[in-house]
Amino acid sequence: MFKEEAVRLAIAPIAWTNDDMPELGGNNTFEQCISEMALAGFQGSEVGNKYPRSPEVLHQALGLRGLQIASAWFSAHLTVRPYEETAEAFVAHRDFLHAMGAKVIVVSEQGRSIQGQMDTPLFDAKPVFSEDEWTLLAEGLGKLGRLAAEKGMAIVYHHHMGTGVQTAAEIARLMELTDPAEVSLLFDTGHLAFSGENPLEVLRTHLPRIKHVHLKDIRPEVVQRVKAEKLSFLQAVKAGAFTVPGDGCIEFAGIFAELAGSSYTGWFVVEAEQDPALADPLEYAIKARKYIRETSGL
């Protein structure tokens, strides 16, 4: 289905240790995490909070297991802080990822985000950007895109639950306000479905802009509970709203077919944050790898 060598498979360490709630998987070591990724059959990883920040040390650990770094999350604050603050942190992040051989940088605007607030209802308190904030975001992302291009890299914007760019309409607006040469899109199946969007429709709309893909599934009964009980994003994660592809309700066959028929090249990253005490990371990594192989041929 996919062209040979066009797509590589990675998995995010957030299934082993949660970046936002480090108590989830706190006992799981970095070495266990990357060893189990390799054992499950993945070729790459994104960067977690237990990963060494020395490129030499990280290269050595990953190389022993046949893994590479696909990318890593960067929190921008373009709508609420001076651009220079975000740019300074971004350049350091860019240079680290460049040293690790990554080609894309995952960026998400965290101005007024509620995703890290334990007690803020996810669907009731979602931020909505003002016209001025949209302008600051678009202009700032363009500048970050130019900084990435200095190293031959691209930024991929991560739409995310609990932020100002969550819905299909907000994604469309961001794409309209930014230059395709400067700002690309990260396509995340789980966040779109959680938000009530149709992932396949969003994929078809923005396919030329997509340079990175996160594969996650959702448990619809948990999403309904999140709405009914006014749970936060972090509470939703702990309740099991997300799971790996093939373990929830998203139909991935059409998504894989659309991507295979396009000119997409790059990484697919399984990223399904769960409580590792309830969802064994290795077991779910193997489950995801098996499902992707059966559904996409990868």
TrEMBL record:
Enzyme Commission number, as recorded:
4.2.1.44
Highest rank taxon of the organism = Bacteria
Query: What processes does the entry annotate via GO biological process terms?
Result: inositol catabolic process
Q: Which family does it belong to?
A: Belongs to the IolE/MocC family.
Keyword presence, Lyase? yes
Species this protein is from: Paenibacillus typhae
Which InterPro entries does the UniProt record give?
IolE, IolE/MocC, IolE/XylAMocC-like, Xyl_isomerase-like_sf, Xyl_isomerase-like_TIM-brl
Keywords tagged on the record? Cobalt, Lyase, Manganese
Reactions catalysed, semicolon-separated, are: scyllo-inosose = 3D-3,5/4-trihydroxycyclohexane-1,2-dione + H2O
Residue ranges constituting the Xylose isomerase-like TIM barrel domain according to the UniProt record: 38-294
The pathway entry for this protein reads as:
Polyol metabolism; myo-inositol degradation into acetyl-CoA; acetyl-CoA from myo-inositol: step 2/7
* Lineage start: Bacteria, Bacillati, Bacillota, Bacilli, Bacillales
Which cofactor does this sequence's record say it needs? glutathione; Co(2+); Mn(2+)
Q: Does the keyword Protein biosynthesis apply?
A: no
**Signal peptide annotation:** none
Q: What is this protein called?
A: Inosose dehydratase
What Pfam families does the annotation carry?
A: AP_endonuc_2 (PF01261)
Q: Output the Gene Ontology terms for molecular function.
A: manganese ion binding; myo-inosose-2 dehydratase activity
Per UniProt, what is the name of the gene that codes for the protein in this document? iolE
